[in-house]
Protein backbone atom coordinates (compact mmCIF):
# COMPACT_ATOMS: atom_id res chain seq x y z
CA UNK A 1 0.00 0.00 0.00
CA UNK A 2 1.75 3.15 -1.20
CA UNK A 3 1.86 6.54 0.50
CA UNK A 4 0.21 9.47 -1.27
CA UNK A 5 1.37 12.19 1.14
CA UNK A 6 3.15 14.95 -0.78
CA UNK A 7 1.65 13.82 -4.09
CA UNK A 8 -1.22 15.08 -6.19
CA UNK A 9 -4.49 13.52 -5.03
CA UNK A 10 -5.73 11.12 -7.72
CA UNK A 11 -8.54 12.82 -9.59
CA UNK A 12 -11.81 11.20 -10.57
CA UNK A 13 -15.22 11.88 -12.02
CA UNK A 14 -17.97 9.69 -10.65
CA UNK A 15 -21.63 9.60 -9.73
CA UNK A 16 -22.44 10.88 -6.26
CA UNK A 17 -25.36 11.80 -4.03
CA UNK A 18 -25.10 15.41 -2.87
CA UNK A 19 -27.16 17.34 -0.34
CA UNK A 20 -28.58 14.06 0.89
CA UNK A 21 -30.87 13.61 -2.10
CA UNK A 22 -29.61 14.71 -5.51
CA UNK A 23 -27.70 12.31 -7.76
CA UNK A 24 -25.06 13.89 -10.00
CA UNK A 25 -23.10 11.99 -12.62
CA UNK A 26 -19.77 13.83 -12.75
CA UNK A 27 -18.70 14.72 -9.23
CA UNK A 28 -15.03 15.72 -9.03
CA UNK A 29 -12.60 17.22 -6.54
CA UNK A 30 -11.58 19.77 -9.18
CA UNK A 31 -14.29 22.12 -7.92
CA UNK A 32 -12.35 22.65 -4.68
CA UNK A 33 -8.92 23.41 -6.17
CA UNK A 34 -7.74 26.86 -5.11
CA UNK A 35 -10.52 27.44 -2.61
CA UNK A 36 -11.08 24.55 -0.17
CA UNK A 37 -9.27 21.95 1.84
CA UNK A 38 -10.87 18.50 1.50
CA UNK A 39 -11.21 15.53 3.79
CA UNK A 40 -11.84 12.60 1.50
CA UNK A 41 -12.69 9.43 3.39
CA UNK A 42 -13.54 5.92 2.28
CA UNK A 43 -15.81 3.44 4.02
CA UNK A 44 -16.47 -0.23 3.18
CA UNK A 45 -20.22 -0.65 2.62
CA UNK A 46 -23.65 0.91 2.82
CA UNK A 47 -26.19 -0.70 5.18
CA UNK A 48 -23.53 -1.90 7.62
CA UNK A 49 -22.63 -1.22 11.25
CA UNK A 50 -19.46 0.79 11.93
CA UNK A 51 -19.92 2.87 8.77
CA UNK A 52 -23.04 4.80 9.85
CA UNK A 53 -21.38 5.73 13.14
CA UNK A 54 -18.54 7.34 11.20
CA UNK A 55 -20.79 9.06 8.67
CA UNK A 56 -22.94 10.58 11.42
CA UNK A 57 -19.86 11.52 13.46
CA UNK A 58 -18.51 13.57 10.57
CA UNK A 59 -21.93 15.10 9.91
CA UNK A 60 -22.22 16.20 13.54
CA UNK A 61 -19.04 18.27 13.10
CA UNK A 62 -19.73 19.54 9.60
CA UNK A 63 -20.17 23.18 10.64
CA UNK A 64 -16.78 23.13 12.37
CA UNK A 65 -15.18 21.81 9.19
CA UNK A 66 -16.97 24.41 7.08
CA UNK A 67 -15.80 27.20 9.39
CA UNK A 68 -12.28 26.04 8.56
CA UNK A 69 -12.99 26.00 4.83
CA UNK A 70 -12.95 22.21 4.68
CA UNK A 71 -15.24 20.08 2.52
CA UNK A 72 -16.12 16.53 3.54
CA UNK A 73 -16.46 13.89 0.82
CA UNK A 74 -17.18 10.21 1.46
CA UNK A 75 -16.60 7.30 -0.93
CA UNK A 76 -17.55 3.64 -0.98
CA UNK A 77 -17.73 1.00 -3.69
CA UNK A 78 -21.55 0.94 -3.56
CA UNK A 79 -23.69 2.45 -6.32
CA UNK A 80 -25.23 5.89 -6.16
CA UNK A 81 -28.65 4.20 -5.93
CA UNK A 82 -27.49 2.29 -2.86
CA UNK A 83 -26.21 5.53 -1.30
CA UNK A 84 -29.53 7.22 -2.04
CA UNK A 85 -31.51 4.32 -0.58
CA UNK A 86 -29.50 4.34 2.64
CA UNK A 87 -30.05 8.08 2.94
CA UNK A 88 -33.80 7.39 3.13
CA UNK A 89 -33.37 5.24 6.26
CA UNK A 90 -33.60 7.01 9.62
CA UNK A 91 -30.75 7.05 12.09
CA UNK A 92 -32.84 5.07 14.60
CA UNK A 93 -32.98 2.22 12.07
CA UNK A 94 -29.27 2.21 11.28
CA UNK A 95 -29.60 4.55 8.32
CA UNK A 96 -27.86 7.76 7.34
CA UNK A 97 -30.76 10.16 6.80
CA UNK A 98 -29.47 13.65 7.49
CA UNK A 99 -26.05 13.26 5.89
CA UNK A 100 -25.53 16.27 3.62
CA UNK A 101 -21.96 15.98 2.35
CA UNK A 102 -21.34 14.11 -0.94
CA UNK A 103 -21.34 10.31 -1.06
CA UNK A 104 -19.36 9.18 -4.09
CA UNK A 105 -20.13 5.90 -5.84
CA UNK A 106 -16.91 4.07 -6.68
CA UNK A 107 -18.84 1.35 -8.47
CA UNK A 108 -15.96 0.26 -10.71
CA UNK A 109 -13.53 0.43 -7.75
CA UNK A 110 -11.00 2.57 -9.59
CA UNK A 111 -11.06 5.41 -7.04
CA UNK A 112 -10.34 3.03 -4.15
CA UNK A 113 -7.61 1.40 -6.23
CA UNK A 114 -5.97 4.70 -7.15
CA UNK A 115 -5.97 5.80 -3.50
CA UNK A 116 -4.56 2.37 -2.56
CA UNK A 117 -7.33 1.53 -0.11
CA UNK A 118 -9.02 -1.32 -1.98
CA UNK A 119 -9.18 -4.47 0.14
CA UNK A 120 -8.77 -7.67 -1.80
CA UNK A 121 -7.38 -8.08 -5.30
CA UNK A 122 -8.01 -9.70 -8.64
CA UNK A 123 -5.91 -12.60 -9.92
CA UNK A 124 -6.02 -15.24 -12.65
CA UNK A 125 -6.14 -18.90 -11.64
CA UNK A 126 -4.36 -21.78 -13.37
CA UNK A 127 -7.20 -22.05 -15.89
CA UNK A 128 -6.97 -18.39 -16.81
CA UNK A 129 -10.18 -17.49 -15.00
CA UNK A 130 -10.39 -14.14 -13.22
CA UNK A 131 -10.84 -14.56 -9.47
CA UNK A 132 -11.02 -12.26 -6.47
CA UNK A 133 -9.04 -12.67 -3.29
CA UNK A 134 -11.10 -11.14 -0.48
CA UNK A 135 -13.91 -8.62 -0.69
CA UNK A 136 -13.25 -5.77 -3.10
CA UNK A 137 -14.40 -3.00 -0.77
CA UNK A 138 -12.57 0.04 0.58
CA UNK A 139 -10.60 0.10 3.78
CA UNK A 140 -11.30 3.05 6.07
CA UNK A 141 -8.89 5.43 4.37
CA UNK A 142 -8.85 9.16 5.09
CA UNK A 143 -6.95 11.81 3.12
CA UNK A 144 -6.49 15.49 3.94
CA UNK A 145 -6.00 17.38 0.68
CA UNK A 146 -4.85 20.99 0.55
CA UNK A 147 -6.11 23.77 -1.72
CA UNK A 148 -3.55 22.86 -4.37
CA UNK A 149 -4.84 19.29 -4.52
CA UNK A 150 -1.85 17.81 -2.66
CA UNK A 151 -2.35 15.06 -0.07
CA UNK A 152 -0.92 16.30 3.24
CA UNK A 153 -2.11 13.55 5.60
CA UNK A 154 -3.45 10.03 5.25
CA UNK A 155 -4.49 7.25 7.57
CA UNK A 156 -5.92 3.83 6.73
CA UNK A 157 -7.82 1.67 9.22
CA UNK A 158 -8.76 -1.97 8.83
CA UNK A 159 -12.45 -2.69 8.35
CA UNK A 160 -13.44 -3.20 12.03
CA UNK A 161 -11.73 -0.05 13.29
CA UNK A 162 -13.72 3.20 13.27
CA UNK A 163 -11.94 6.52 12.90
CA UNK A 164 -11.57 9.44 15.30
CA UNK A 165 -13.13 12.66 13.99
CA UNK A 166 -11.28 14.67 16.65
CA UNK A 167 -8.00 13.53 15.11
CA UNK A 168 -9.17 14.48 11.62
CA UNK A 169 -10.03 17.94 12.94
CA UNK A 170 -6.69 18.19 14.73
CA UNK A 171 -4.85 17.46 11.50
CA UNK A 172 -6.84 20.15 9.68
CA UNK A 173 -5.93 22.62 12.40
CA UNK A 174 -2.27 21.59 12.28
CA UNK A 175 -2.04 21.97 8.51
CA UNK A 176 -3.76 25.34 8.55
CA UNK A 177 -1.56 26.51 11.44
CA UNK A 178 1.54 25.59 9.43
CA UNK A 179 0.17 27.26 6.31
CA UNK A 180 -0.60 30.47 8.20
CA UNK A 181 2.32 30.68 10.65
CA UNK A 182 5.05 28.72 8.92
CA UNK A 183 5.74 26.93 12.19
CA UNK A 184 5.66 23.17 12.63
CA UNK A 185 3.42 21.28 15.05
CA UNK A 186 5.06 19.07 17.69
CA UNK A 187 3.70 15.87 19.19
CA UNK A 188 0.16 16.10 20.58
CA UNK A 189 -0.23 19.64 19.27
CA UNK A 190 -3.78 21.05 19.48
CA UNK A 191 -5.33 24.26 18.23
CA UNK A 192 -4.46 27.10 20.58
CA UNK A 193 -1.06 25.70 21.50
CA UNK A 194 2.23 27.11 20.31
CA UNK A 195 4.13 25.67 17.38
CA UNK A 196 7.88 25.73 16.95
CA UNK A 197 10.42 26.74 14.35
CA UNK A 198 11.93 23.89 12.36
CA UNK A 199 15.45 24.54 13.63
CA UNK A 200 17.72 22.96 16.23
CA UNK A 201 17.31 25.98 18.48
CA UNK A 202 13.53 25.89 17.99
CA UNK A 203 13.36 22.24 19.05
CA UNK A 204 15.63 22.84 22.04
CA UNK A 205 13.55 25.83 23.17
CA UNK A 206 10.30 23.89 22.84
CA UNK A 207 11.59 20.83 24.70
CA UNK A 208 12.99 22.97 27.48
CA UNK A 209 9.62 24.66 27.94
CA UNK A 210 7.62 21.42 27.84
Automatic annotation (TrEMBL):
An example molecular function term from Gene Ontology annotations: thioredoxin peroxidase activity
What keywords is this UniProt entry annotated with? Cytoplasm, Disulfide bond, Oxidoreductase, Peroxidase, Redox-active center
* BP term (GO), one: response to oxidative stress
Q: Which GO terms describe its cellular component?
A: cytosol
Q: Tell me which residues this entry annotates as catalytic.
A: 51
Q: Does Cytoplasm appear among the keywords?
A: yes
The UniProt transmembrane annotation reads: none
Chief localization: cytoplasm
Q: Where in the cell is it found?
A: Cytoplasm
Cite the Thioredoxin domain residue spans from the record: 3-177
- Which InterPro entries does the UniProt record give? AhpC/TSA, Peroxiredoxin, Peroxiredoxin_AhpC-typ, Peroxiredoxin_C, Thioredoxin-like_sf, Thioredoxin_domain
Q: Which PANTHER family match?
A: THIOREDOXIN PEROXIDASE, THIOREDOXIN-DEPENDENT PEROXIDE REDUCTASE, MITOCHONDRIAL
By sequence similarity, the record places it as follows: Belongs to the peroxiredoxin family. AhpC/Prx1 subfamily.
Q: What does this protein do?
A: Thiol-specific peroxidase that catalyzes the reduction of hydrogen peroxide and organic hydroperoxides to water and alcohols, respectively. Plays a role in cell protection against oxidative stress by detoxifying peroxides.
Question: What is the recorded name of this protein?
Answer: Thioredoxin peroxidase
From which organism does this entry originate? Cryomorpha ignava
Lineage of the species this protein comes from: Bacteria, Pseudomonadati, Bacteroidota, Flavobacteriia, Flavobacteriales
Amino acid sequence: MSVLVGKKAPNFKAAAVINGEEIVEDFSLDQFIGSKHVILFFYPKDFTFVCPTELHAFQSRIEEFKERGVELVAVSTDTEQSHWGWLQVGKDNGGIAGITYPLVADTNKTISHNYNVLAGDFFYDDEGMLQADGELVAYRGLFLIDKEGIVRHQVVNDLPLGRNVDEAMRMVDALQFFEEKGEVCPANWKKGKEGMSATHSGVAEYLAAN
